[in-house]
Amino acid sequence: MNAAITGTGSYIPTIKKENAKFSGNRFLNADGSSFQSENTVIIEKFKTITGIEERRYAENHFNASDLGAFAAEKAIEDAGINPEELDYIIFAHNFGDVKNDAIQSDILPSLATRVKHLLRINNPNCVAYDILFGCPGWVEGVIQAQAFIKAGIAKKVLVIGGETLSRVVDKHDRDSMIYSDGAGACIVEASESEESGIISHASQTFAKEEAYHLYFGNSYDKNEDPNVRYIKMYGRKIYEFALNNVPNAMKAALDKGGISIDEVKKVFIHQANEKMDEAIIKRFYRLYKKPIPEGVMPMSIHKLGNSSVATVPTLLDLVLKGKIDNQKVEKGDVIILASVGAGMNINAIVYRY
């Protein structure tokens, strides 16, 4: 019995924030001191490094669970299944539901339970739970769905990745420009076909020196309430960590599946930083002493920013639905889904469509 993705869906929030709209921010260093450079210079350098031109924020009355439900509805419709037949709903996120202008994360009940409620699913045997695995959460959820199917305890699983990072950022931190909101989902079903489905995967957690590369910390404005925390990161450490470890994890998954690098048509990688993703792909192909195929790495970060767990499923859905120029996946194509994030966690899936 194999596990195959039979439907995908995504929700792209409607509020667009271009880089220029950060020109009025008062950016500070970690010690609270002011930058010597003007905001126009900071923003232009930010765009050069990350590739981000604009990002999307959720409407004020929507929370992460709402975005997840919107994406789930589309995935269910795409798969053509009855939601009452779902055995599991797995929701990957980091901060739960954070209301607009609030400072408290709400994860009671779980976001997966909230989605089940919003979808009006009656079946009590549809088990709903959340996973916290950093940005690789959705990919890990798909891996768990496969495990349930392989074990014979599930036939249909809904996996969601959703986040509203715009509500947990420090407006005085330059990194606040990176983050965005969104949700992506897929249906993973049991399949007897040997021609398509999940081929192999790899997952890793590095927590000795790397556990707090991403963390919750105080605002860079020392006048703000010290009890209020925001998402923070050591960007340079994460960049170096990703370059040194993500290509190896991708190779481990590919080699485990007995698939040649020449068969890989697309690599859907977490949309964290354009330069970092390009460097990861370069090192990945260097491991096989191969040139990088043109167009192998679809990107959405330029317009959508970094929505954490939502980037990979959203990107996959957009490509499958023909919404990214010059990018498509055809029957029989081998793709890789890969991510890196808080933990520090890394994972990769090798999949044949």
Could you walk me through the main structural features you see in this protein, from its secondary elements to its overall organization?
The model has no long low-confidence stretch (mean pLDDT about 95). β4, α3 and β5 form a beta-alpha-beta unit. With about 350 residues, the chain is an alpha/beta fold. The two termini are about 15 Å apart. The strands form four sheets. The chain has a five-stranded mixed β-sheet, sandwiched between helices. A four-stranded mixed β-sheet has the order 8-13-12-11, sandwiched between helices. It is globular and about 60 Å long. Helices cover about 30% and strands about 25% of the residues.
Number of helices: 8
Strand content: 15-25%
Q: Based on DSSP secondary structure assignment, what is the total number of beta strands?
A: 13
How are the strands ordered across the major sheet? Answer: 1-7-6-4-5
Helix content: 25-40%
Please state the average pLDDT score: 95
Fold blueprint:
Layout: E1 2-11, E2 15-18, H1 39-50, E3 54-57, H2 64-79, E4 88-92, H3 111-118, E5 127-131, H4 137-150, E6 156-164, E7 181-191, E8 197-205, E9 214-217, E10 230-233, H5 235-256, E11 264-269, H6 274-287, H7 301-304, H8 311-320, E12 334-341, E13 345-352
Parallel strand pairs: 4-5, 4-6, 11-12
Antiparallel strand pairs: 1-7, 2-3, 6-7, 8-13, 9-10, 12-13
Helix pairs in contact: 2-3, 5-6
